[in-house]
Amino acid sequence: MNKEIMLDIKQLHHEFILGKKKQQTRISVLKDISFQVKKGEVVTLVGKSGSGKSTLLNLISGFIHPTRGEIWINGSEVSTFTEKQFANFRLKHMGFIFQNFQLIPSMTAFQNIELPLILKGENENKRKQMTLDMLEKVGLKEFGDYYPSELSGGQQQRISIARALILEPPLILADEPTGSLDSETEASLLEFIQQLNEDLGITFLIITHDEVVARTGHRTIAIRDGRLVESGVSQ
Amino acid sequence: MKFRDQLRFIRQNIKKNKIRTFMTILATAMGCAFLIVLASIAYGLQESIVEDTLEQQIITQIDIYGQEDEKGNFQSLTLENIEYLESIEQVKAVTRRNQLRQMPLFAMDDYEAETAAVAAHFPSEVASGLTLREGRLPENRGEVVVGSHFIKNLAEVTDENIYDEETGEIKEGYIYQGNLVDEVLEMTVINNDDEKDSIPLKIVGVLEAPTREWMQDKNVYISDKVFSEVEKFTGTPGGELGVDPKELDSTSIETFDEVKVYADNLEAVQGIADKLDEENYMTYSVVNEMKQINMFFAIGKAGLILVGTIAIIIASIGIYNTMTMAVTERAPDIGIMKAIGANPKTIKQIFLLESSYIGIIGALIGVAVAYATSALVNIGLPLILETAFDESLPEGLQFSSIPVSLILISVGICLLVTILSGLRPAKKATEIDVLKAMRREI
Ligand SMILES: Nc1ncnc2c1ncn2[C@@H]1O[C@H](COP(=O)(O)OP(=O)(O)OP(=O)(O)O)[C@@H](O)[C@H]1O
Ligand SMILES: [Mg+2]
């Protein structure tokens, strides 16, 4: 196994099963997907709506199980993991950024960022320090006590990035992270992602519709009708 | 995730739904209190009755009336039986007494008493705990000891009415006031032909009063030799009058009317009683009676606990409902937590902890309420009954008693039921689909 590889997808197939037992129909969403992402790379994933981008990301995240194929992350074959194993693996190795942020509305910005530390079982003093540092890093030092509903979209997305970063995972998966943001906020977010990639060497896999976003990555992968069609290096 | 953080989580969750949680806790507390109070009545009455019985009996004592032979016929106890009884392990003493079957007249100078004469075996009496107030134990044929209340019966010989009209007892002024020890007592018995026989006896000691205040010992304890002399004089067993000696079979063996076995300690009584039962001895001991009373109450308690448990089960439906709603409400949050990397086990624990929390707080409040209610019942119910029926209740009667074991049983049942009722909702929480939850589809 190549130590330089962060993500290795091998002949991945995925079918969704619709309907009850007798009238089942299978729809094949991903067909024979294979690609690799090196450590420290920022890879963007593009494709038409319904082409299977989110499905691919959900498979890598372990939220759904593949019909066939292998998914290697940081040297582990994760598609055979149990739910519990995957939960622990996610906590250690992966961060998530979602289009609609997925912050817990009843928790403050501070508590949302702190959550992964709590799940990991970190002690309170260390937690507090790390969370405050992270709030500062995403430029929201004064907003720790705000609830998500009291923050703008861009601020919420930065909180969710802070939450994804707090345990310093080697891989961050993002499904249209800028989809809900205006172009100015989008630009500052992309800058932030690039900075994280350069400073901490974090690997990113970013789904996007946006040309601008796609161009920020080192490389772009495109999907059409569930198949990988091209894999190009951006300029 | 640390336990402390889990606690913090559930505190936050509960805060969000104070009223709903409070109502659920209230229902649990009421169920728990209902169970405890209900069962406490059985405990209370049992305690009162058992205490009452114990107060009147010597606990380590087993009375033996006789033995059944193979055909089920009654057999009086013989010396052979006594020797066997004495050989049983953990038997401290076997006392045997024979009461004279006629009331002799005892005369001392100008005083007389008509009272029972009892032949006793003194070494075993002493071993069973009999003690003297003054004097010593008899050593010779003609020596006797008298019971503590014998003197109360020893009244002046006079034509006047010596009895107090109200109490029926001999008036103080007529009772013998002097010393008894070393005095000579003339015992007079009669036979079927109305002939009299006088036997002079010497009092050498007076027994200690019985431990129970209301018991009176007026007996004169004679030696078995004197007892036999009386039997010889009347020609009947025990000196009984009104039976024809010729009709009795002459193979008279020495038997005992009143045999008591004393165990070393309370724990040994049951074992000895069981052994004697097996060997067809006819016995009575407080333990026998306790067994029956306790059996009766055990059934009663089990029934009441069952009824109380149903109350808790009804309350647990509330917990189930509360927890199911909590899981549904928090499904999006749970989905997010799972997406980030929360272990399903952790999520289950949080919800189980929450239902246990409701159970524990409910049980604690229930226990407090039960104690208060129990105290109220013990004070209030006698008052109500006494005014309603105009009759005073026996002293020390307790309607409701809450022993620690009852608290443990009730709290145990309460916790078990609440945890069980929280199990399914907690399981449901772990099965929440991350993607559905994040799409707010649940
Ligand atoms: N849970 C599901 N059950 C059945 N079919 C599904 C499910 N999720 C997705 N699909 C189907 O799989 C295909 C790919 O969906 P997916 O969400 O991966 O597309 P996408 O590339 O992310 O599109 P978009 O850019 O609009 O987000 C679609 O045709 C969709 O209908
Ligand atoms: Mg999508």
What does this structure look like?
- Chain B: InterPro entries: ABC3_permease_C (IPR003838), MacB_PCD (IPR025857), Macrolide_Exporter_MacB (IPR050250).
- Chain B: Belongs to the ABC-4 integral membrane protein family.
- Chain B: Residues 21-232 form the MacB-like periplasmic core domain.
- Chain B: Pfam families: FtsX (PF02687), MacB_PCD (PF12704).
- The complex is a heterodimer of chains A (235) and B (442).
- Chain A has 235 residues and is an alpha/beta fold.
- Chain A has one domain (5-233): P-loop containing nucleotide triphosphate hydrolases (Rossmann fold), CATH 3.40.50.300.
- Helix content of chain A is 35%, strand content 29%.
- In chain A, the strands form two sheets. Chain A has a six-stranded mixed beta sheet with strand order 6-7-8-3-9-10. A four-stranded antiparallel beta sheet of chain A has the order 2-1-4-5, with helices on one face.
- In chain A, strand 1 and strand 2 (25-38) form a beta hairpin.
- With 442 residues, chain B is of the alpha+beta class.
- Chain B folds into two domains: 3-56 and 292-438, no CATH class; 94-260, no CATH class.
- In chain B, 52% of the residues lie in helices and 18% in strands.
- Chain B is built from twelve helices and 16 strands.
- In chain B, the strands form two sheets. In chain B, strands 1, 2, 4, 5, 6, 7, 8, 9, 10, 11, 12, 13, 15 and 16 form a 14-stranded mixed beta sheet that branches. Chain B has a two-stranded antiparallel ribbon with strand order 3-14.
- Chain B is elongated, with a radius of gyration of 36 Å.
- Adenosine-5'-triphosphate (ATP) is lined by residues 16, 18, 27, 29, 47, 49-55 of chain A.
